[in-house]
Structures are given as structure tokens and as C-alpha cells.
């Protein structure tokens, strides 16, 4: 689902006091299909449909929307409103996985993690590979501050759901929070296999390689940063900074030892530094002196 299609649908609603049914439901449908994290907008327009247009929805559409609005309400802290919807869904679908999951999410939102975990584990007993429930158990461990437990849980999840891009990216974030850069690099490389054109992931991977340190990692990071610069026509400031930082580490006498290969390639650092200077001269001239001081300190001026 193209992101611009969802953005266009949302823009069409903005500034309209009473948007028409077709426009609102189009946005909500696109948000559901793309799994967009827009809880405030989903709650706002979902409530509008439930209050004003519920009779125009089919039965399945109506209950799916109530579920979406419940999740959105929990995400934006409307706990009481969410509970009202949870009760409605539980009455309609008693003992269902849908009702159990939403009730557990409500317990999560109110910090009653033991009750939430109990409900999730009951659902896992029925379906041990339930992706949604396994993900929620990861978030509970995080909320409790148990990063080690969250990592162990998400590793088990990835044993089952190997192609889940969200899980690889989330695992990377957990490893980064614990300073396990090598493991984070592996996870981000898996994400790039599925999303090779994702510049944000490439940036994070390059910065993680740089943080891991060592000549080989600096050289690989420089390659990713350089690729991003090429993809963005030299406009990505973070990538320009990244090339400069790698150049400083790989320069003769730099902090990275054991590389005899960096020589001519450090010209990249000079080029990146000049591109940075040009950017700041145009957009942030008052900070150009700070950039110059940094480049001189790294031997790039």
C-alpha cells in the first residue's frame, strides 16, 4: 500500500468539520491495510463512523472498526473509552482470541502486566505460533524493563516467523539498547534483505557499524553512508557526517589501527566535508564555524 495514498486520504479529511462517509471509511481502510501507526486519527475518524455512520457498515466491518478504535484508544491513553469497547466486543465474541487480546492490551495499558500475560499465555496454549500474541509478550517484557527477557522472547519469535521485518527491526532496537552492536548489525542486515531501498534502515545500519568500531566496520559503514549520499543526491546530512567520521577513523594515524587500505579513499571524507560546508553555508550559516572546527579536528580541512 503506497504511503502517499494514505497521506492523500488523510489530507483530504483535514479541515473538514463533517467529512463524508466515503472519505472517512477510505482513510480507515487504508490505515488498516497499511498497519499505519496513526492512533489519534484512527480514533477520531473511527469514532465519527461509529457514532454517525454505524448503520451503513456491514456486520464484519463494524466489529473490525470497533477493534481498530479500541487499539487506537489504548495507544493514546483513552483507557475508559477503550474499556467500553472491549466490553462490547467481549459480549459479542465471548471467549474469542479477539476479545482476549484486546482485554490483555487493556491490562497492559493499566500496567497490570500479570493479568495481561496470563491472558496471552492462554491464547498461546490454543495457538503456539500466534504472531500477534507473541509480539505483545515481547512488549510486556520491555515495559517491565526486562530487556534480556524481551530479547529472548523475540529470538524465539523469529525462530517461527523468520521473514517478519518488524521483528528483525525490533530485535535490532533491543540489541542497540543493550550495546550488543554485532547482533544489531545482523538484524538490520536482515531488514535490508526485505527492504533494500529503505534509507532509514541503511543509515541505522551504517551508524551501528560505526559504533561497533574496528577497521572493517568503519569501511563497511563508509560504504553504506556513501550509497545513501548517492541515493539522495548528496542531501542527506547524517550520511555526510557519517563519511567524515569514518574518514577520520580510517586516516593514517586515526583511531582505527591496522588498515593500510584507506589512503586515497579518504578523499571521500574531504568531499563529504565540503558538501557539509556548502549545506551549512546555505541553510545554517551561523553554525558554519562549528562545522569547520569539526572538520579541522578530523583532519579534513
Amino-to-carboxy terminus distance? 46 Å
The chain-level mean pLDDT equals: 91
Q: What share of the residues does DSSP label as strand, in percent?
A: under 5%
Largest sheet: none
What count of helical segments does DSSP give?
Answer: 16
Q: In words, what does this structure look like?
A:
This protein has helices at residues 3-13, 21-34, 39-52, 59-75, 79-92, 97-109, 113-126, 131-143, 147-160, 165-177, 181-194, 199-212, 215-231, 237-250, 267-283, 288-297. By secondary structure, it is mainly α. The chain is built from 16 helices and no strands. It starts with a helix and ends with a helix. The protein folds into three domains: 1-92; 94-179, Tetratricopeptide repeat domain (Serine Threonine Protein Phosphatase 5, Tetratricopeptide repeat, Alpha Horseshoe); 197-301. The radius of gyration is 24 Å and the shape is globular. Helix 11 runs antiparallel to helix 12 (199-212) and helix 12 (199-212) runs antiparallel to helix 13 (215-231).
Amino acid at each position: 500500500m503506497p504511503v502517499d495514498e494514505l497521506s492523500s486520504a488523510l489530507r483530504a479529511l483535514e479541515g473538514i468539520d463533517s467529512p463524508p462517509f466515503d472519505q472517512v471509511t477510505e482513510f480507515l481502510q487504508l490505515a488498516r491495510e497499511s498497519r499505519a501507526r496513526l492512533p489519534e486519527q484512527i480514533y477520531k475518524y473511527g469514532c465519527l463512523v461509529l457514532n454517525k455512520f454505524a448503520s451503513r457498515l456491514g456486520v464484519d466491518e463494524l466489529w473490525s472498526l470497533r477493534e481498530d478504535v479500541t487499539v487506537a484508544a489504548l495507544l493514546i491513553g483513552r483507557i475508559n473509552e477503550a474499556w467500553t469497547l472491549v466490553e462490547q466486543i467481549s459480549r459479542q465474541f465471548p471467549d474469542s482470541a479477539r476479545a482476549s487480546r484486546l482485554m490483555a492490551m487493556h491490562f497492559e495499558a493499566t500496567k497490570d502486566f500479570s493479568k495481561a500475560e496470563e491472558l496471552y499465555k492462554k491464547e498461546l496454549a490454543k495457538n503456539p505460533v500466534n504472531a500477534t500474541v507473541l509480539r505483545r509478550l515481547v512488549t510486556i517484557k520491555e515495559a517491565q524493563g526486562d530487556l534480556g527477557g524481551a530479547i529472548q522472547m523475540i529470538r524465539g519469535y523469529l525462530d517461527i516467523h523468520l521473514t517478519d521485518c518488524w521483528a528483525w527491526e525490533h530485535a535490532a532496537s533491543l540489541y542497540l539498547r543493550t550495546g550488543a552492536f554485532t547482533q544489531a548489525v545482523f538484524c538490520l542486515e536482515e531488514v535490508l534483505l526485505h527492504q533494500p531501498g529503505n534509507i532509514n534502515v541503511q543509515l541505522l545500519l551504517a551508524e551501528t557499524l560505526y559504533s561497533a568500531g574496528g577497521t572493517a566496520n568503519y569501511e563497511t559503514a563508509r560504504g553504506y553512508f556513501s550509497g545513501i549520499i548517492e541515493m539522495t543526491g548528496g542531501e542527506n546530512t547524517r550520511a555526510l557526517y557519517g563519511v567524515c567520521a569514518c574518514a577520520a577513523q580510517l586516516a593514517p594515524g586515526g583511531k582505527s589501527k591496522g588498515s593500510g587500505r584507506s589512503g586515497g579513499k579518504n578523499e571521500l571524507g574531504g568531499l563529504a566535508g565540503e558538501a557539509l560546508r556548502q549545506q551549512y553555508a546555505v541553510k545554517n550559516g551561523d553554525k558554519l564555524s562549528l562545522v569547520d572546527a569539526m572538520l579541522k579536528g578530523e583532519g579534513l580541512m
